[in-house]
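S1.2 Input.
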Amino acid sequence: MSAYNLAGILAHHADRVPDRPCLVWSGETITYAELDRRAARTAAGLARLGVGRGDVVAVLLYNCPEFLEAMFAAARLGAVFMPMNWRLAGEEIAYIAGHAGARLVVSEPELAALAEAARKDLAGAQGVGGAGTAPGWTAFESLREGGQAPPLADVAADDVHRLMYTSGTTARPKGVMITYANLYWKNIAHVVEFGLTGADRGLACGPLYHVGALDLTSTTVLYAGGTIEIHRKFEAERALDALERAGISNVWLAPSMVNQILSHPSLERRDLSGVRLIIDGGEKMPLPLIERLLRAFPNAWFADAYGLTETVSGDTFLDKRATVGKIGSVGKPCLHLEVAIWDESDRPAPAGTLGEIVLRGPKVFKGYWKDPEATATAFRGGWFHTGDIGYLDGEGFLYIVDRKKDMIVSGGENIASPEVERALYEHPAVLEAAVVGGPDPRWGEVPVAFVVCRTGATATGEELREFCLARLARFKVPRAVHFIDALPRNPSGKVLKRVLRERVTTR
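S1.3 Output.
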């Protein structure tokens, strides 16, 4: 047995505390022993379908116990687990599944169309899902029927545990290779950071395909032997019910989720004193909003965070004692991670000086799947170059000034501007296009497009939005389209997106 195999954590708790609740789902409690048995049988079923070490298992599911069951089953075989974002369009799903070379797709009836898109370019890829998913698919439940549970794969620290596709800063998503060691060191760091024990109960109400719900809540709490309550989708009222009555101790909430909770009409009469940890990340949260959150959750540590998919998220956290005094900061690095600021010459910058945020440590990813060029660009001088701009103050607190080039964060979802621009450029009337983030009271940011039309050609904003909707997920489609004569550029010809962002905020 490998010490790094994630499935070994489940087996350990199943041996030591077999009857302890592991997952809570729609009134059903699944113990550690039960989930371990399910994952072992599912692993046997996957093996019968030809899944083995290193094969990619794509999972396209709403939140449910089977999501985590599939993750542990894949780990048991030494296969690569790949959660997929169900908010993406079919074309995007097809690209990711094809680029990853998925051996098998696990889905459900509600996502049948996306699941079929995922298999479109995969010759011989198996489909696993419930009744109504698609003709010829294997029922998930049948995986658990018969067959001897395989032993835990003896994985190496550097073996890929998971693939997670991020929009990044290019026109196509990149596959982030998260190793078993990355997850191992991340879990230890976060268990220590937050003092987690088997008594903790986390709430997974955000999508499990996202590192926030999957890693900042679920895998960390399960590593400590705690319990996860799973909600199929985020609903503010249901989340509040759980946070009030279910003994939830910690939860990850995207800024858009925080806004919905704080605006819910029942908030003032809720007793939310049992929640001790709220992890947030993404857009900066202003002090008045933090003050409202802390009034609603009087005993909670609001851990404003900075993190990336490439580091299994949760790189820095703002300490409870510094929440107000260091407002605007995302805190200090967790265990097993170094943070530095480098200047344009790839040299360390003095405290208080703006520069690129660089990271190194055992929780930093292995590289990008099938993309050695992007990997080499990201890793220079022994550090991972995030592309984010910030500074460290004299006490070592990190401040984020600007996000990755061309990145928009909308409701916790990353949107790469070049990806949206690529769709706009496909329209015959578009000569040039640039997309930036515009402020939005609910989502934090939404994509806004600036378009230059070809000579003699015309288009409307709604026409371009409908054009994009056929090619992109709805949340990536520009909320507004502004037609201009020319894009602002610097002397080198680079589009000045800073100028465009200023135009959006002043309109």
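S1.4 Remarks. The domain at 326-402 is CATH 2.30.38.10 (Luciferase; domain 3).
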